[in-house]
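Issue: ligand-bound run for pyridoxal-5'-phosphate - logging full I/O for the record.

Environment: standard queue, default settings, no custom constraints.

Inputs:
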Amino acid sequence: MSMQEYMDKAEQYVLRTYNRFPVVLERGEGVHLYDTDGKRYLDFAAGIAVFALGYKNEAYNQALKDQIDKVIHTSNLYYNVPMARAAEKLAVASGMDKVFFTNSGTEAVEGAIKAARKYAWLKDGGTDHEIIAMKNSFHGRSLGALSVTGNTHYQEPFKPLIGGIRFADFNNLESVKAQVTDKTCAVILETVQGEGGIYPADPAFLQGLRELCDERDILLILDEIQCGMGRTGEWFAWQGYGVKPDVMTTAKALGCGVPVGAFVLNEKTAKASLVPGDHGTTYGGNPLACAAVNAVFDQYEKLGVLEHVRKITPYLEKRLDGLAEKSDYVAARRGKGLMQGLVIRGKTVGQVVNEALAEGLLVISAGSDVLRLVPPLVITEKDVDEMTEILEKCL
Ligand SMILES: *Cc1c(COP(=O)(O)O)cnc(C)c1O
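Outputs:
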């Protein structure tokens, strides 16, 4: 079939909830993807910050094949080997205590919300607890996660959402304080806002939130689904801020393409929240997903991914700053590590993304006017140069 025929078939049978770019991707190698016509693309999107290791990492692929030959699924009624190891790795990397594996990011957020409500319920028996979330945030598409997503366009058609959610301004501690009541059980935010347009939290904001939460016994939930797993040069972005959440969510790069997420609790929260019967999942943490998580952690260590991200970040920032200086279409650059955004003016981001696609570069948008760069974490200076050259052409 031709590329057009695949696209036509997909449009005929797949529910149209996405405006897809006109390309059918077939295989990947390293930091490149190939379409069904054999055209090569330099990938600075990584399947939306997922494929951190690059494609066709042999050890990762082999680990999955080995696990497929052993067992793919057993359910959570029994213990399995990969899950025990994966939970340990996640706990050690985060310095937190208890892990619940999910199949996606949005489910990790659901779990975090349930843990926070249960924690508060055990304290006072109330059933009207509140959660403070941030404007311009993104936490997922299921109803709980959508309820804490500060984007009215995403929310409006699906109301009523879950109750007791109050919104504050990201990076504005006073605006959060203004929303605190006796019923507040949690504050949830992304350490670096992703979909909203790549906004890193200010250190003073995050530290202030931690103090506020400690004073009032409010749980601090950090959503690390996009910015975690090494993207900022730390396992989790909050580790670069000197604060620690009570609950953390992760997904995206956690399985590098195998659908898996998790919410992770500290001891205090784990001891006084979810117990058998409170929460469950048929697939969550299944042996195949957890074999992927283990292979990801093993490869990060073997390849020195965190060190590499720290090393290459200044180079990427320098090249992007150069681009911003040269091009009238770029108003600013912001970001952290390999999660960078260019604010575009004078053109739509969609235009730039399409032009880059034609030139063999995959990039994506964030917010209304931000070009988002979330490449595999194994990119080299040469890849950064190639990306910059293509973007220079487009901008
Ligand atoms: C992608 C994302 C989610 C949702 O994850 P899904 O796997 O798409 O459900 C939640 N929070 C953040 C910060 C994300 O970037």
